[in-house]
Design goal:
By secondary structure, the protein is mainly α. The protein has one domain. It has 9 helices and no strands. Helix 1 packs across helix 5 and helix 4 packs across helix 7. Pfam families: YitT_membrane. Keywords: Cell membrane, Membrane, Transmembrane, Transmembrane helix. It is found in: Cell membrane.
Length: about 200
Amino acid sequence: MTDPARHSLTEDAQALAYGAGMAAFGITLLTHLGLVTGQTAGLAVLISYATGWGFGPVFFVINIPFYWIGYRRMGWQFTLKTFLAVGLLSALSLWMPGWVSFASLNPIFGAILFGAVSGSALLALFRHGASLGGVGILALLLQDKTGFRAGHTQLLFDAALFAVAATLLDWRTVALSFLGALVVNLVIAINHRRDRYIAT
């Protein structure tokens, strides 16, 4: 009998495809507007802006050291799903600019749309036992080892990232980037409730 508290392989595959696809669309919106975001994706975006390297390869490489941490902290299923999600996002982010173009995109609306799309992508991945790797995994490890809250680690990382962005980008771009990152976090904070959504 199928356990109703667990997702099937097909459901997991759909969630990874949806999550990676929507995350790639979010990155397409973000980079079209020249904005940045938080966490590992934000670091990859900043590096891609500074070097001219594509987001996809940079994001994929940055995540490599975190898989061992993910395996030790969350197990092999989480790590495999995360690896697949990161790989798919990295590939799609290379192809999607050729599939989607914007004749007109209001920057404020674009930042909000990025946040909503990216938040829904992360929710899909979280609810199916995956993530987009990176800083979140490290934050959980530090919480286990030191007791320092994972959310505080992520907040400090994002603060440092936006401080660096402020030295490279104009204040309006940084403000719009912050708006987009805020929407991402609000979507997750409001909707990612383990006491309401218990399927894994």
